Amino acid sequence: MPIALREDAVGLYLHIPFCERVCHFCAFVTRGFREERATAFVKDLITEICLYREMQALRGRVIETIYVGGGTPTTLTGDQLGGILQACRDAFRVDRAAEITVEANPSGINGPLLEALLRAGCNRLSLGAQSFESDELNSLGSSHTPVQIEMAVRLARQIGFRNLNLDLMYGLPGQSLERLLANIKSAAALEPEHLSFYNLTIEEGTRFARDAEAGHLVLPSHDLMAEMFETGRSTLEAAGYVQYEVSNFARPGFTCRHNVGYWTDREWLGLGPSSHSYLDGERFSNVESLQEYHHCLLRGALPVAAREEVNYDLRLREAIAFGLRQVKGIELAQLERRYGIAPLKRFRTPIAQATSAGWLEIQEASLRPTRAGLAFADDLGLAFI
Length: 385
Ligand code: SF4
Prior knowledge:
By secondary structure, the protein is of the alpha/beta class. 42% of the residues lie in helices and 23% in strands.
């Protein structure tokens, strides 16, 4: 039987569902920003936080990371974001050294907003840069320009942010390897502590999905995408970034603790419309509609749309599948302690297959993806599910 699956630390995710406009690739749940809508939403979100406090859902567990994402959280004012973070502190046990990340759009920040975020305890800012080429940003439907990215980074530094992430995409329509490398060079020149380097995926229901279906989207070939990933990560490594997960690179000491939680079997509570949670062995998700979210909270009910119990076996398999997205892989002894199994024996077949395919290796008592295996992390993970 499992030993102790429930650990003290949890992550908290807060979904802010507004954007200035919807990017052509984005499948996140977002709504057009309107002031009165935002005011009502902040009230609802704080009500949801209070409901979880009353239920003692976290029962004193320590929140070690808070991630405010969306959407574009910085469509809200500094006071609104500060009020939400304060409500979390009042309701839960937030670690004094918690990592608190707020996502922002480079075109939507200003000095007073960033100062308010710092005062509210935000110590990590994540900017959705995506590209440093104007035409690429236009094709993505982004609302910012390359100059605004540089200005945003400079401003954040001036205000005092010491932990910055830039999101950078590859595999954009019509993108060449040379242009991608120019993008990486521009991003690295701004010296962020962290870079999320991820490929464009065409998600159902997006403008890009419709364009692709109509044959209007020219995407890089599969081989070029593989070359972009390979050359991109070597270039980032040469610039001093260490890859720690398939799409994530950081200067030493600046991994994103919140996201690492998702890959290391830590539980989290997600609040806000469409957010997902994984708490006490149960997975549950909130309603997507802002209106439905509001109506639930108005009558004092949790806005949960679906619940699913994750059985012990699935949890173990997922812990391996997600853990293998990390460069360091999974420590075998830790898995054994936590789940009371001998991983090499229990998963003999998938381990043997992945090892002979050159995707997996056992090193220093850890199960680790090889450099080649990281490029196929989704398939590698699926072998254990
Ligand atoms: S700003 Fe971010 S969340 Fe909003 S539509 Fe664009 S990619 Fe999606």
